[in-house]
Amino acid sequence: MYTLYGTARSGSAAIEMALKACGVEYRICTASSWQKESHLEELRQINPLVQIPTLILADGSELTESAAILIYLGMEYPASGLLSQDAAVRAQQLRGLVYIAANCYASVGIIDYPERWLPDGTEDHNTQLAQGTVQKLYQQWDSFSDVFFGSKAWQPAHPGGLEMLAAVVTRWSQAREHLRLSRPGFCLSLTEAEKHPAIRDVIENHWSPERP
């Protein structure tokens, strides 16, 4: 049994997709730094950085960082399809997962919380930082599309960990809206990947209009 700490519309959605693809039992503990009524203190004891997703493994150890969790699950459950069995293709999938985590995921953190990066900055400084990072984020997604879309590593008809993480992170900071104009083929492939049951069910749950 796995325990996943996360919340709606966060990076934990990608891990939930992966757990479904693996066909394993798991439970979800709602927790985030912006939800004071969640399992926040419980998460803090496990992960002092209060990061989500945090996954508690069957042996009780904890695993953080979305890309690391997806890679772990792909290695632990090779039949899940999270990672390719072809070494060359898998290498590019790992490259893509780390790219999203190091570039796109990181940029969203600056956009959402610019004051963490400019603690002594004025409101105008923080706004400028956030706006500039949004444009950088869009460039990063364009570059991702140019490298991975159409390659053997990108398989929207049989989505794995790379497609799952991209499906979630492109929903932040209006990146999907940007991609509809800048990289329409890549954007359509994300929609195709989201038809997979493991992805579709999580998307419908996390991004349901009924959710607050």
TrEMBL record:
Coiled-coil stretches, from where to where?
none
Q: Which SUPFAM superfamilies does the record associate with it?
A: Thioredoxin-like
Q: Which residues belong to any copy of the GST N-terminal domain?
A: 1-81
CDD domains, per this entry?
GST_N_Beta (cd03057)
Q: What is this protein called?
A: Glutathione S-transferase
Q: Which organism is it from?
A: Cronobacter condimenti 1330
- Lineage summary: Bacteria, Pseudomonadati, Pseudomonadota, Gammaproteobacteria, Enterobacterales
